[in-house]
Design a protein that fits this description.
Length: 435
């Protein structure tokens, strides 16, 4: 009798538990462990891209500036993490205000916790926030490639804190947070406009405001450690799978499709860059292969979740050629000193990727996207062009004005003597190498 009663109680408990679970599933989003794990791992992948960028950029400067260049990326991890937690996330993703910016609803991450948020039903709101934080961190770090070897470290720290607030956060909101570009119907799967066009165009503005390095165009300024640059490119490539596949916000078929597109486009971009470099200069270079890889990663970023494998090959190969031309032909013709080609790779590559999304996107790959020009809908291409122009013009103008103001208030450049000595010693009092 007692055993029967126990069995009845256990059965009743399980039945009630099942009923409660089913009811919760019907009435509210439920956290999925696999999706949450994937987003947290992807966040860690994207975080690894920051030291990857530090190595990539660090190897390309002269040895007297290697630590300072690495510090640009490493410091962004600290500065933007705090900015994002205090107000950046709210400005980018809180409920829309006029199509331009988010409200202060989530100021200080208030209300951002373990429950599903507004942007993903199967992961905690906090997981989405931390994933997006990593995007916010690496974006201003990319700009440092244009100002390497001549910008004061203190000015850089102030600049990225303000830039993220008045440039990155609004653009992020426009595209992903309920702003006007998202409402327009333009597509950006993982950050072609949000990350790469915004940082690349801002890098061009920064190079123009700061002016050329001492001896630029006269002195030979080769990369001091190409193995370091190749290591950085490899780490960036690895981390980019979190960047692109993680942007599916689940561990399902869409993440798999984006992963495949990322790998194929990057490989094709290396071939595109090396091919045209070999043809023009007579020899393929390790720096060219590394640069081609980054160009391909940049270009496939907006398209990764919307295009198939064969389209990825065309996007990647095109990125290798287009970015090579921007670096090797356009930069010398215009005469600006973008030290590590942030504009030529990220600005131009991001624009090509956003444009290519309007050409190659297919509903057969992602029913939540749209068809591009080559799949029957020219409307998407025009939307992509509008998003490119809107993002680029805003980022350039605001960055240019911001840097002019900062230059007049705190100064942007180190002195000629400090630049000659090397910024490692003048700004940090230490050297990357002892012999």
């Amino acid at each position: 009798m007692i055993k029967a009663a126990r069995r009845f109680l256990v059965f009743t408990f399980l039945l009630c538990g099942y009923g409660a679970t089913a009811y919760a599933g019907d009435s509210a989003p439920v956290i999925d462990g696999a999706d949450t794990a994937w987003i947290l791992v992807s966040s860690a992948f994207v975080m690894l891209m920051v030291p990857g960028l530090a190595f990539f950029y660090g190897g390309m400067v002269r040895r007297k500036n290697v630590l300072n260049t690495i510090m640009y990326s490493f410091t962004a991890l600290a500065v933007i993490s705090i900015q994002w937690a205090i107000m950046g996330y709210s400005l980018a993703f809180a409920p829309d205000v006029g199509g331009f910016i988010g409200s202060l609803k989530w100021l200080g991450l208030s209300g951002v916790g373990a429950e599903p948020g507004d942007y993903a039903d199967t992961i905690p709101h906090g997981a989405f926030m931390i994933f997006q934080m990593m995007f916010a961190i690496i974006t201003p770090a990319l700009i440092s490639g244009a100002v390497a070897e001549r910008m004061k470290f203190s000015a850089y720290v102030v600049f990225i804190a303000i830039w993220s607030t008045i440039v990155y956060d609004p653009i992020c909101h426009w595209v992903w947070g309920g702003g006007w570009i998202g409402d327009l119907g333009a597509l950006d799967f993982a950050g072609g406009t949000v990350v790469h066009i915004s940082s690349g165009v801002s890098a061009l503005a920064a190079a123009m405001v700061l002016g050329k390095r001492k001896g630029y165009g006269r002195d030979h300024m080769p990369p001091h450690n190409l193995p370091m640059t190749l290591l950085g490119a490899g780490l960036l490539w690895f981390g980019w799978f979190g960047f692109n596949a993680g942007s599916a916000l689940s561990s399902g078929a869409l993440a798999s499709s984006a992963f495949v597109a990322t790998q194929i486009a990057t490989a094709a971009a290396i071939l595109g860059w090396v091919w045209i470099e070999w043809k023009q200069r007579g020899k393929p270079t390790a720096l060219g292969a590394a640069s081609g890889a980054i160009a391909g990663l940049v270009a496939i970023t907006p398209a990764a979740g919307f295009v198939g494998p064969m389209s990825s090959i065309l996007i990647g190969f095109g990125a290798g050629i287009v970015c090579y031309m921007a670096v090797s032909l356009i930069k010398p013709m215009l005469g600006y000193d973008d030290s590590l080609d942030a504009f030529g790779i990220h600005g131009v590559g991001g624009a090509w990727g956003a444009l290519a999304t309007g050409l190659f996107a297919s509903l057969s790959v992602n029913p939540g996207g749209a068809d591009g020009l080559f799949f029957g809908d020219a409307g998407l291409l025009w939307k992509q062009i509008v998003s490119i122009l809107g993002t680029g013009i805003y980022a350039f103008v605001v960055t240019y004005v911001l840097l002019i103001i900062l230059d007049s208030v705190i100064g942007l450049r180190v002195t000629e003597e400090e630049e000659q000595m090397g910024i490692d010693l003048s700004e940090h009092g230490e050297a990357g190498y002892t012999n």
